[in-house]
Amino acid sequence: MAYSVKVLDHYENPRNVGSFTKDEEGVGTGMVGAPACGDVMKLQIKVGKDGVIEDAKFKTYGCGSAIASSSLVTEWVKGKSLDEALEIKNTQIAEELALPPVKIHCSILAEDAIKAAVADYKKKQDDK
Ligand code: FES
Ligand code: FES
């Protein structure tokens, strides 16, 4: 299958690959898997005292579209509030990357990973 130019760009030069240490202040971790193909995506956000996402990192064990989707969303969430980050829809990701129908679930994985990371961050704040 031919990947779009934007997918290839993010796939070949993924942004923000890596991870924060678990106990770092303000970190939320989202780990999600795609039942359709078994791919796994880990996405982390680092939230500042003002509630704004300062940084994001990801590790994705999956196809090019999943890697591109996670790379793209780590760029998108930076500078956003948690509520704004939750508004990111997989359809926006799919549109930006021009994903074909069979690769839509890869973008859903990215949306789910952000939601999971925000939920984890909030849970950690509540547990304090
Ligand atoms: Fe999982 Fe794409 S099917 S690698
Ligand atoms: Fe399964 Fe991309 S995440 S094919």
Descriptive overview:
Residues 3-126 form the NIF system FeS cluster assembly NifU N-terminal domain. It comes from Oryzomicrobium terrae. InterPro entries: ISCU (IPR011339), NIF_FeS_clus_asmbl_NifU_N (IPR002871). This is Iron-sulfur cluster assembly scaffold protein IscU. This protein has 128 residues and is an alpha+beta fold. It has one domain (5-120): Sufe protein. Chain: A (Alpha-Beta Complex). The protein has five helices and three strands, in the order αβββαααα. The protein has a three-stranded antiparallel beta sheet with strand order 1-2-3. Strand 2 (40-47) and strand 3 form a beta hairpin. The longest helix is centred in the C-terminal third of the chain and has 24 residues, at 104-127. The N and C termini lie far apart (47 Å). The model has no long low-confidence stretch (mean pLDDT 94). Bound molecules: FE2/S2 (inorganic) cluster (2 copies). Residues 34, 36-37, 39, 62-63, 65-66, 103, 105-106, 109 line the site of one FE2/S2 (inorganic) cluster. One FE2/S2 (inorganic) cluster binds at residues 37, 39, 62-63.
